[in-house]
Amino acid sequence: MGLKVSRRSFIKTGVVATVSGMLWRDAARVLPIQTAQAASSPKQTKSADVIVVGAGISGLAAADALRKNGYSVIVLEARDRIGGRIWTEYEGGTPTELGASWLHGIHYGSPAPFLAQTYALGKADPAKGLDYTYRDWLSQLDIRQNQIVHGVSHDDNGVRIATYSDVFNAKYAVITLPLGVLKSGSVAFSPELPLRKQEAIDRLDTGLMNKLYLHFPHVFWEQDADTIRLESPSGDAQEYVNLHKFTGQPVLLASFTAQAAAELEKWSDEQITEHAMAALVRQYGDSIPHPTASKSTRWASDPFARGSYSYHSAVTSGEDMRILGESVNNRLFFAGEATNPDNCASVHGAYLTGLREAQKIMGIA
Ligand SMILES: Cc1cc2nc3c(=O)[nH]c(=O)nc-3n(C[C@H](O)[C@H](O)[C@H](O)COP(=O)(O)OP(=O)(O)OC[C@H]3O[C@@H](n4cnc5c(N)ncnc54)[C@H](O)[C@@H]3O)c2cc1C
């Protein structure tokens, strides 16, 4: 397996800040998607002005903006945690970011305001976590977890969203399903999505990044290095971010992209750790300690992500992302990183699409 750290996080704007601890402390338990046939008959109906599908950053941004402007909003989230592709786990008290790590964009002309404010107020602390900052904000939203949406229908009177336990009615819906989920067809739309949108979904594609965190009892590598480049016994290059330098904790982080990331998903956790340890032992000797904990991600296999983020490929253009973000019948509004042609694949890009769609709804009602 060819292993390498993606430099993406570091080169986009320069490192701005980690999202350590951002919003979400709960570990994810990914629920199996049931087949449409297995869907039991709905037990209850709920109503709101707007249903937001997905409690990632785009959905939360849309819900918050709408709520503040007097709309009743229900957010439906498939997982038993919120945050989507921002996913912080606290291993031994150390925040480890299993999805996004770095916040970009605060040096751009129009950064996500909540990020800018947070940093201007000096509230960000990589070792503490930003969930502290946003707990109040989240407590005001009506977020229903473990609600796997499998059907979205709409007509001139409103929208109807079916999960495996309930049916929700609303005037409008903001759909923030990740591109990979839209591509999988696991959510049925009635009437079907317009052909031009479906063709854009087919053309667009998702990239893959997986992470491996290794927690050690103490640091045995170069303490001041940003990254450490190693070679495994089989000749693979591996590059680790030295998180000790940023958090003070003895933790190494490797990120795998593309084919290496896909390969990783076929391996057991033990195999992945063993592979990483072989390279570390080769470099630092066999007296180094075994990790006290390790964690690796499998974003492609995750039924509620089906990939890490969208990207511009040779056969797609920003136009496809723009089409993906087009509303349908002034009832369905589409947000999420893949609908942002200028800032796809990012936290701030996703956030801005949530605000964009909330504005659209406010413009018509
Ligand atoms: C490994 C990795 C590293 C990254 N690194 C960075 C980084 O350093 N900096 C950066 O800016 N960005 C980074 N990103 C990208 C960033 O995380 C995403 O662009 C952003 O979080 C996407 O937000 P979103 O709201 O569009 O989607 P999501 O966060 O995916 O939200 C969509 C929500 O919909 C839910 N959902 C899915 N299916 C259903 C269903 N059927 N019913 C109900 N709910 C459903 C999901 O569970 C999820 O909560 C990274 C992503 C990954 C995976």
Automatic annotation (TrEMBL):
Q: Which residues form the Amine oxidase domain?
A: 57-121, 140-362
Q: Which domain of life is it from?
A: Bacteria
- Tell me the PROSITE patterns matching this sequence: TAT (PS51318)
Q: Which Pfam families match?
A: Amino_oxidase
Q: What is this protein called?
A: FAD-dependent oxidoreductase
Origin species: Brevibacillus brevis
